[in-house]
Amino acid sequence: MTLENKIALSIDVEDWYHTPLVTGSPFAKYKNTQQFFEKWKGDYDMITTSTLRLLDLLDKQGITATFFILGDVVKRYKEIVEKLKNSSHEIACHGQDHQIALDPNSKKPLISVKDWMVEVKNSKALLEDTFQRPVIGYRAPGAYFGKWMVQGLETLGFSYDSSIAYNSFYNKTDCKLASVPTFPYRLNRDDLSSDNPNSNLVELPWSYLKLFNIRFPVGGAFFYRLLGNRYFKFALNSCLRKGDTMFYLHPYDLTAEKIPIGNLRSRPFFWINQGKTTEMRFEKLLISFKDSFTTCEEVYNRSVK
Ligand SMILES: [Zn+2]
């Protein structure tokens, strides 16, 4: 095993009603969180308990990770904010309330570049102000990433992005991805899959495993719940042999609660294997890769050395 290489461990902190099935996408039940809360008055916290459990698991193994946080989470989830404030985990930006910025079909922007810049700038500032530490990383909500975001992120002072998922099943970017590595590379604003030595923005791409000429996703979250540790250990080790790589999870992956609205039949398997099963698996994965897991910031720093 190549143990010197690292896995950027990232946790996307968002609640069930932020997911693109429920709000913030053209296929969502509600246009945005505001419309959701007009209809669903009350408290729908599915993530405080699981985020605290996640933090305990990380503490137990002495692992620091990166938390990609929504501005909306900062406003509504005080306990999560307090815990993270008193931790040494990295804080990174996941936008304001998880509105996806590209149309999944046409790949055209759903928002003007100017409005997108304002949203990302404000959520970065809110995080820096709340957590009193610099925020250098961005992950696009739903991982929908447009070429036009590269320049925007550079302008807003980000050092890295971690949104690009390259696999044989979907492409959530607005260009053809010819070939993306499983390790960090410098993002080219004209072609997201090619490395540009002059770029100031580093991409920490989502990992994948190439088997029989098919690239299977290794990013984490849903695929982790679906495919489990045996596949992920094999796949992560294979990525580690090539260089540093990335893994991600959501706190709601560890919750046993079921989403309270029933008509999300378009994704019948979306909530498979949540809860204790995933928590126990994840603890084992943390132990297996204890020396490899680290923050995105450290992986970024290693890539620019
Ligand atoms: Zn997200």
Features:
305 residues; globular; binds zinc ion; 9 helices; TIM Barrel; four-stranded mixed β-sheet; alpha/beta
Describe the model:
This protein is of the alpha/beta class. The strands form three sheets. Strands 1, 2, 3, 10 and 11 form a five-stranded parallel β-sheet that branches. It has a four-stranded mixed β-sheet with strand order 4-5-7-6, with helices on one face. The protein has a two-stranded antiparallel ribbon with strand order 8-9. 34% of the residues lie in helices and 12% in strands. The chain has a single domain (7-304), classed as TIM Barrel (Alpha-Beta Barrel). The protein has nine helices and eleven strands. A hairpin with a 2-residue loop joins strand 8 and strand 9 (214-217). Zinc ion is lined by residues 12, 14, 94, 98, 141.
Largest sheet, strands/sense/barrel: 5 strands, parallel
The first-to-last residue Cα distance is 23 Å
Which CATH C-level class is it? Alpha Beta
Structural class computed from helices and strand pairing = alpha/beta
The number of strands is 11
Poorly predicted parts: none
Radius of gyration: 18 Å
Any idea of the CATH topology?
TIM Barrel
Oligomer: single chain
Bound molecules: zinc ion
Question: How many domains would you count in the coordinates?
Answer: 1
CATH architecture: Alpha-Beta Barrel
User: What's the number of helices?
Assistant: 9
Strand content range: 5-15%
Mean pLDDT: 91
Helix content: 25-40%
Q: Judging from the principal axes of the Cα atoms, what is the shape?
A: globular
